[in-house]
Amino acid sequence: MPPDTTQALTASRYPGSPASLRRPSAPRWRNWAVAVGTQGLRAGGLILFLAVLGGFAIAAPAFLTPANLGLILAQSAVLGILSLGLTLVLITGGSDVVGGGIDLSLAGTLGLSAATFANLNQAGYGDGACVAAALAIGVTVGLMNAVAVVRLRILPLLATLAVMNICEGLELVVTENTTVAAASPLLDGLGQTGPFGVPVLGYVLLAVTLALGLASRRTTLGLRAYAVGGHPEAARAAGIVPERYVAASYVLSGGLGGLGGIVSVAFLNSATGGSADMLLPVVATAFLGFIFSRRLVPTVTGTLLAAVFLGSLSNGFQLLRLSTYWVNGIEGALILAVVGATAGLSKGRRA
Amino acid sequence: MSSVSIDRQARLPRGTDLLRFGVPAALAAVLLVFAIAAPGFLTLNNVAGVLVNNVALTAIVALAMTLAVAAGGTDLSVGTAVDLGSLAFVSAIAAGHPVWIAALLGVLAGVGTGVFNAILIARLGITPFLATLGTLFIGHSLQQLTTDGGNPVYVSAASIPPALAFIGHGSVLGVPFVLWLLAGLAFGTWLVLARTRFGREVLAIGVEPQVALYSGLPVGRILTLVYGASAALAAVAGILLSAHVNAYVPYSGNAYLLDSIGAAFIGTSLSRTRRANVPGTLLGVALFGFVQNGLLLVGWNFYWQQVGTGILIFGALLLAFAGRGSAARGRPGAH
């Protein structure tokens, strides 16, 4: 496991727990158990995911129908796209929350871009102009973050917090705190159901994932981005300019926030307030995505799986007519369980 | 790691020590500009109003955050502690218990949240950010389940005990009770953090937990106390909030989360070593509060106020962080 993520995830900061005190003299069976445990955990995310899907499928026959799976994908589109943006920032920033990369402005960007899209739509502008404006807003917000973090060296947590405030304020200015309806050929098209009964929005999410996944795993740029996040000094020594990658990740993240805004308008047929509520779910999804990667690092596919996983939880609960009040708690407990298990295991591993 | 790297990044080159005064300067500038632009701004009435309505509760939550930040963490579940404290307090009063028992229950509910955090952080070794994020989500569910999806709990107007009215609206010697309490809590927190052995231990853990542990500090116990106290403070804010509105409104605590994070971190710029400190945090909260109020008085459109606040916070951050050493964006892997 690369040291940064391991540490970020496992809080070697707080070595007070008994596990780490025993570290120097860990017996061989412990290493063994840890090795087995680590492998189990690596596969564990997927196993858990499939188990939950299986459970829902047995309990609610409607769950596994293509139409419902497509619906889950479409319902996860906004959350997924935003979380992918945060994932990029985590990749280049390192996943240490306070000192590393984080983008708290994503939900605000979503709201502002959705509001802009819907307002321009109301004002009679065509789809092209609306899309361009929404994306431009996202990229501008991303640029602000990038300048604040890379040039002005403000802690990402704080810089993006201030930018989030600005975005949410502007959203209120644009919408005057009302719901702005929107209708256009593009929105109609996005609201359609595509091949295999999967809504077009689901395909949008998959396409974004595919593009970012390929870029991060199959290109030099992606490799270097991981290098920057993993060990900025080593990356610099290897001739990479970390600042460029970090800045680019914030700009891309902002752009994805803009795209998320368009998708959300398409999903709701309007721009509604309250986008700020998306912030914490986005953070949770991006971090939960770690469990779907073999090395417990932020990955594009891991984040997609996490978003879909959380989407299928709410969907399954609804189908089973269980109270959705439990969903948040289960989400929280899952994050804790996963991160806690990872923490325990990697402590042992470094023995 | 994190705070070590922050410390590293933050080590100021000689001569830039003046930057420590960025936040006080920003606050002074804000006060000056609004005093000129809005005639009613610097009146006693208005300042008292800002302190009671915009500053007091946020400040108490920010004190809670300061403790966690001083210990090298972040506490995203302060809002949860506010809510659970408020829920326990109001439910107990609605059930006819005396106010002091209700307040005790409220604080205990907060402490419960804090102990849960502490177990996750100190025992299981989960990073504070993620541990408290998990707590926040679980707390959300808990509130949904106990309130049937988010219905407020009211104290019926006929049965408001006098003590509750006093906590919410009373004053002593002409100064609102909330401000006395804030002053007491702030002084207490400052005393503990800046003037006691325990406070030095907390800061030591915040800088380098490994070293703190190897120096023989009971890291787990200290962190338990820190997160317990943090949640207890937040619960006090919750009790004050519910006494003010005679109700428990689900999820209202999260409104304080981002402001308190902002204030605690902006406040670190006041310290030579960039540690979280009580005066800095209070200045940060005051900055937010007076900017909001000032923009209101100048007659800015309500919706523009948030934009203005965001931009001004950004400016304060610039002042506080400008000229930071160009050390590598230090991250865990870097050392």
Topology at a glance:
The complex is a heterodimer of chains A (351) and B (335).
Chain A lengths: L2 H8 L7 H4 L6 H32 L6 H10 L1 H17 L12 H17 L4 H25 L4 H20 L4 E2 L3 H7 L8 H19 L1 H11 L1 H6 L4 H27 L1 E2 L7 H10 L11 H20 L5 H25 L2
Antiparallel strand pairs in A: 1-2
Helix pairs in contact in A: 1-16, 3-15, 3-16, 4-10, 4-15, 5-10, 5-11, 5-13, 5-14, 5-15, 6-7, 6-8, 6-13, 7-8, 7-13, 9-13, 10-11, 14-15
Chain B lengths: L1 H9 L11 H16 L6 H27 L7 H17 L4 H25 L4 H19 L6 E2 L7 H8 L1 E2 L2 E2 H19 L1 H11 L1 H6 L4 H27 L1 E2 L8 H11 L10 H21 L3 H20 L14
Antiparallel strand pairs in B: 1-4, 2-3
Helix pairs in contact in B: 2-13, 3-8, 3-11, 3-12, 3-13, 4-5, 4-6, 4-11, 5-6, 5-11, 7-11, 8-9, 9-11, 12-13, 13-14
Describe this structure in words.
The complex is a heterodimer of chains A (351) and B (335). Chain A is mainly alpha-helical and 351 residues long. Helices cover 74% and strands 1% of the residues of chain A. Chain A has 16 helices and two strands. Chain A has helices at 3-10, 18-21, 28-59, 66-75, 77-93, 106-122, 127-151, 156-175, 185-191, 200-218, 220-230, 232-237, 242-268, 279-288, 300-319, 325-349; strands at 180-181, 270-271. In chain A, helix 5 packs parallel to helix 10 (200-218) and helix 5 runs antiparallel to helix 13 (242-268). The relative contact order of chain A is 0.20. The model of chain A is unreliable at 1-24 (pLDDT under 50). Chain B has a single domain (17-325), classed as ABC transporter involved in vitamin B12 uptake, BtuC, CATH 1.10.3470. Chain B has helices spanning 2-10, 22-37, 44-70, 78-94, 99-123, 128-146, 162-169, 177-195, 197-207, 209-214, 219-245, 257-267, 278-298, 302-321; strands at 153-154, 171-172, 175-176, 247-248. Chain B has 335 residues and is mostly helical. The termini of chain B are close together. In chain B, the strands form two sheets. Chain B has a two-stranded antiparallel ribbon with strand order 1-4. A two-stranded antiparallel ribbon of chain B has the order 2-3. The interface between A and B is large, with 76 and 73 residues.
